Amino acid sequence: MAYDEYLADRIRQQLKEKRTHFAELKMMGGLCFKLDNKMLCGIHIDKKYGDSLLMARIGESVYETEIKKSECLPMDFTGRPMKGYIFVTPDGFDNDDDLSYWLDLCINFNPLAKASKPKKKKAK
């Protein structure tokens, strides 16, 4: 298991309570939750940090405020932070109200987010 199943269950429950029709996709060594075919949030166990992190797609305008919080880290798989995405440490989603806060930011940004282009299948 490359992600925290308990956190995944908490996210599923909250998204259902928010009446959000989501999909799940295992990727990047973790689990991604999608809304309207766009990444909403995800779970990743970070080897550098040593714990589960919540990946949140919150948008660039909200990012500037949220990144200043002690429980937030830049999302940088490649060493270069991804714009509009943030990692939240367990201190930031420990209780349900905190997790709900991050999910609401993700859901609010989702209509503005661009969907990834579908990958073309290689001809055989």
From TrEMBL:
InterPro entries linked to this entry: TfoX_N (IPR007076)
Bilayer-spanning residue ranges: none
Listed GO biological process terms: methylation
Keyword annotations: Methyltransferase, Transferase
Molecular-function GO term, any one: methyltransferase activity
Keyword check for Glycosyltransferase: no
Residue span, TfoX N-terminal domain: 23-108
Pfam families per UniProt: TfoX_N (PF04993)
Protein name in the entry: RNA methyltransferase
Organism: Flavivirga rizhaonensis
